[in-house]
Each structure stands twice: as C-alpha cells, then as structure tokens.
C-alpha cells in the first residue's frame, strides 16, 4: 500500500557533514530517501552569503523590466548555443507556449572549431549574451553559478555515498569543461500570453544530473512523484533551494533515483514570478554508464521512464541538445535544420 505524498522534504545542508569531515549518516539516509521517493526536496543552510538570494531576484526583476527591444538585442535565435534572451511565448513545452521570458547562460567558452558529425552537441559550447548596459546581471548570475556548482558537487557526493558508492564516484565527468546551465526566468500573470493558458512552464523532467532552483515567494511549482496522480505544491521557503533529480541520474540508477515530472502554473493576472534554475551538469561528451547499486537498492529501482515523446539518452550532450531543439524551434531551425525531423 502506498501513501499519497503531499509535501516535499526539507533538508539542512549544514548538517551534511560531521566535525571530522565525513558525511552524517542521518543526512545521507534522508537525502537518499527524498531523492528516491519524491525526486524533489528543498535545502536550507547551503552557504549563500546574507542578501545573495534577495539581490539576485531583485536584479532579475530590474532586468526584465527593461524595454523588450533592449532585451531582444540578446535574442537567443542568434545563438547556436541557445544562450541569451527568449521572449514571451517563444518557448514550447509539451507542444504549448510557456508564460515566461528568460535568459539562458552557461560557462563562457570559445566555440569549438572542429565538430565531428556524430557529436553535434559540441556546438553547445560557446559564448553567453549579456546586456552591456546592465552589467550587474552578468555579475550576479556568474557568482550564483559558482556557488551552485559547489552545492551541486557536494550534493552529488552525498548522493553517491547514499547509493553505497565512493563519494567521488560521479566526479570525473564534471572535470575540465562541465557544461552547467543557468536560467534567469520571469513568469508573467495569466492572460499575457493567451496561447499559454495557465501554463507557466509545461510538465517536463530536467535533463542533467541535479537541478538547483531558487524561487521567489509567489509559488506555482508543482511536482508529480512516481506512481502518483496527485500533484504536490513546492511551497516557497525564503532563502531555500529546491533540488530535483535529472534524467542522467535516472538513467544511471535504472530509476532508483527519479527525474520527477514537474510544471509551473502561471501566476494570477497582474502578478510576476521570478526563479533561477541551475542545472548542474557534466561535460558535453560524457556518457553515463549504469551504476552498480547494492542489491537492496537495486530491488527498488523502477526502470527508466519510457516516454515516446522523450527518449532518455545516456550521452549527456545528446540528451541536452534534444531538449533545446524541442523547446526552441526557431533557434533550432536556424542553427540545426538537418537535425529536425
Ligand atoms: O521556475 C520554476 O519553478 C521551475 C522551472 C523549471 O522547472 C525549469 O526551467 O526546468
Ligand atoms: Fe524543470
């Protein structure tokens, strides 16, 4: 008999390690349980200096208040890396427009000069697009990414330990040039993007390893744990991060950890919502092999979701490019016409 889950667990990261530096057993058990049963949890105590989250959200609100012509100078349709600004209604999830505008960004790197035909995802390495006349956006966003990479690394070490593996088990694919992705998002009140209806962002799973999300106090994020019809609201907690498991960890653990489906309902008319998802991700060329789970955990692995609309790929680069092509059809048509069906 299973019980319907109605809330997502909250964990305090400051209790993750004992005084001697080893991981705390109770923390590890609670983390594994949350990641297995729900695939979503919130964390407090992750080391953000005072005022960081408020300042980030305020800077986002100021940026998105700029005239659309100014934001369109950063149009992501000009970026083969899908970086920069996506205007309202242009992103598509589950075949429908989302009620959000956003900036996508990642590690600032040179584009690669030679890309093998069987690795088109290597085109995702390249530069960001930032507003020169609003430099604080780049500063706060890049500082946030530095902190999120630290938190992501620590959580992935703790998850490895929870799976009975050495803490550095997942670390190698993150060495050298990890392809993390940051998003700065503004959801607009219902009605502003009529074709979106009440969809803030449609139901989806995230592609990478671990997503770390800062949300403001408006709410609207909902998750659907494995095997449950009911959606759970992720109630905003000031200064906390929402954490969820991405498809790479679902594939690697044969579904012991789950890339749980989630969505955002558009805020009510006249209300704005801001959020900052961060996708802690490995190198584009990494391929994730199955994890040797202890028998007790392997017995609880549920297999990998079999959604014909969303095949999960063990190649990180291929999995992430698949997601970009689907979500940004105009950018895809311009830069990757031969990859579209
Ligand atoms: O804004 C949120 O609360 C969630 C966004 C999200 O799920 C995503 O961008 O992948
Ligand atoms: Fe997501």
Automatic annotation (TrEMBL):
Pathway: Antibiotic biosynthesis. Keywords: Antibiotic biosynthesis, Iron, Metal-binding, Oxidoreductase. It comes from the Bacteria. GO terms for molecular function: 2-oxoglutarate oxygenase/decarboxylase (ethylene-forming) activity; metal ion binding. Its EC number is 1.13.12.19. One of its GO terms (biological process) is antibiotic biosynthetic process. It is an enzyme of class 1 (oxidoreductase). Residues 173-282 form the Fe2OG dioxygenase domain. Belongs to the iron/ascorbate-dependent oxidoreductase family. PANTHER family: 2-OXOGLUTARATE (2OG) AND FE(II)-DEPENDENT OXYGENASE SUPERFAMILY PROTEIN-RELATED (PTHR47990). This is 2-oxoglutarate-dependent ethylene/succinate-forming enzyme.
